[in-house]
Amino acid sequence: MMFRGLNKISLDTKGRISIPTRYRSELAKYDSNKLICTIDIDQCLLLYPKKIWLKIEKTIMALPSLDKSSRILQRLMVGHASELAVDSHNRILVPLELREFSGINKSAMLIGQGQRFEIWNYDSWTKSRDSWLKKNDLTLTEQLREISI
Fold first, then answer.
1. Which of 64, 72, 77, 78 matches a 20 to 30 Å C-alpha distance to 43?
2. Residue environment code for 34-63, b if the CB has 16+ CB neighbours within 10 A, otherwise e
3. Starting at the edge strand that comes first in sequence, how are the strands of the sheet with 45-49 ordered?
4. d(Cα 60, Cα 79) in Å, to the nearest integer?
């Protein structure tokens, strides 16, 4: 099951977004109307089906708690994780704290990223995308050098 593609979406006055029709049947395969939303270091939000998130959360929480980087990751990703219910109109309410963190107010981009979505402030997304496209100094790790696209 994969989520892919870009979708310009709008938040209503209460901070709700509608799940685009093309993703609804994929989400239904996860047998839950629960999603988990948390923050990302790129100042966007990550949105996971709850079933996928629970595996990620378990991995994050198994990291050594005495390691400073592990604690920071746990605090940021798990600490900000919010369970969201998909309502009968296929909408989710994005918590105010997460909207404030990401700068999402009216227009946003929902981006399919495999087993999760990213939700970006629309202007931040377009600026970041344009910046990435202009970069010609992309440094590939050894792992990335092995693939061809």
1. 64
2. bbbbbbbeeebbbbbbbebbeebbeebeee
3. 3-10, 107-114, 117-121, 45-49, 34-39, 82-85
4. 11
Report, as an integer, the average pLDDT of 87-94.
Answer: 96
pTM, full prediction: 0.89
Question: In DSSP terms, which residues pair with 4 in a beta bridge?
Answer: 113
Dist CA 24 CA 20 (whole Å) = 7
The helix or strand, by DSSP H or E, that contains position 85, with its residue range, turns out to be: strand 82-85
The pLDDT, as a whole number, for residue 67 is 94
